[in-house]
Amino acid sequence: MRTIISIVLLQLLWYVPLKAQENPTSFTLDEAIVYALEHNYDAINASRDLVDAQKQKWETIATGLPQIEGAVSYQNQLKQPVTQIPAEFFGGEPGTFQEVVFGQPQQMNATATLRQQIFDGSYIVGVQATQAFLRYTQNAKEKSDLEVKTAVVEAYGNVLLAQESVSIFEKNKKTLDDNLYETKKLYENGLGDEESVDQLQITLSSVNNQLKNAKRLEKITLQMLNLMLGLPLDNPTVLTENLDKLTQRQIDFGLVENNFLLDNNTDYKIVKNLNEQRELELKLAKSRALPTLNAFVNYGGLSFGDSFTFFDGGQDWFGFSTLGVDLRIPIFSSLGRSASTQRAKIAFEKAKTQLTQAESQLRLQHESAKSDYILAIEQYQTSKDNLDLAERIETKNQVKYSEGLATSFELRQAQTQLYSTQQEYLQSMVDVINRKTALENIINQ
């Protein structure tokens, strides 16, 4: 018994750490995107929509293939109908009638019918429509994947931004704590003024509030990333990228020089799917003026009895079979089919106009995305240079303040300028990452 308990405990000890490692804990940006494309909730449902479209395609095709159905009916005439027949047929007097009951009170009928569609214009259009819908669903899945990628990139960048902000605010807070401590000592020894202490206290309070907010944002942005990845909100996800190095990798001027091919753009594919759908609707409206031809053959058995003996071995069954063809020809619909066809034609013309409009809009979006991407890179480089300048200015003012050559107000201005420049620099890096993703989505790269 002790041996068994020891084995069970050992298995549990192995099981617990394995269970805890089910969810990944660290991601690069590329790893996060790959993981999200498989586990994101929207991505999962988009994959299900694709499978559903494939099943719908076969469901439509199957309607034109042979269909076999069986039918069984049972009747028990609790009170059989009576028919009057001239009595003279039975040797009776002319002008009188004899009451007769035909058949037996119980009967059962079993039939199997094979139906085959021979020609139906709407079926042909329906099969084409399911193929078009499948292509639309594939493009919608591609669109969903791009949206998931964009959401993951933005969430990943926001987490890095929040983490870097926390690090910078903590560094700024430490510097301010040291400044405030030294200024208080000078004031207590009569070598400083109270205003300098107050100025530093104001700046420190502001930085403390920003630090607390940055820590809250760090938690919220990490939960948002977990949501995009399809992980529990409180999963201990670790980001292995460095914001600055990641930004450097996202600078690729080759993207701007690439030719823009409309046929590669997912939104353009979806608009073309809509155009194709409207064209098929027009064909469907026209097909309603065509005849339909169907054939069927059945075989069945009919049995009668005074009591329910249909499953007995000696029961007689009388077989029957029918072969038939059903031809339906539309002749006159009071111009209803004509109106339906005209409406479908108008919808098709509108779809063609929308396609032309989409071409122009997407070309404009491409040019705008290129401009935004270039601007983001330029702002990143400018912000980086400005940060170096702001740091040098703040350092010089620190030295001047400690030597009594600058006032606390001048030091606070330099610090405030530095803090603002730091945030602009962090945001410029995230902008580069997001603008590149937006451009990649348009060219579908």
Question: What would you say the CATH architecture of the largest domain is?
Answer: Up-down Bundle
**What is the 3D form?**
elongated
The structural domain count equals: 2
Using only C-alpha atoms, the radius of gyration works out to 40 Å
Residues in β-strands, percent: 5-15%
Distance between the termini: 63 Å
CATH class of the largest domain, named Mainly Alpha
Order of helices and strands: HEHHEEEEHHEHHHEEHH
The amount of helix comes to 55-70%
> Class by helix and strand content?
alpha+beta
Question: Got a strand count?
Answer: 8
According to CATH, the fold-level topology of the largest domain is Outer membrane efflux proteins (OEP)
CATH superfamily of the largest domain: Outer membrane efflux proteins (OEP)
**Mean pLDDT, as a whole number?**
87
| Order of neighbouring strands in the sheet with most strands | 2-5-7-8
Give a short account of the largest sheet.
4 strands, antiparallel
Name the poorly predicted regions.
Answer: 3-21
Instruction: Tell me the number of helical segments per DSSP (H or I, 4 or more residues long).
Output: 10
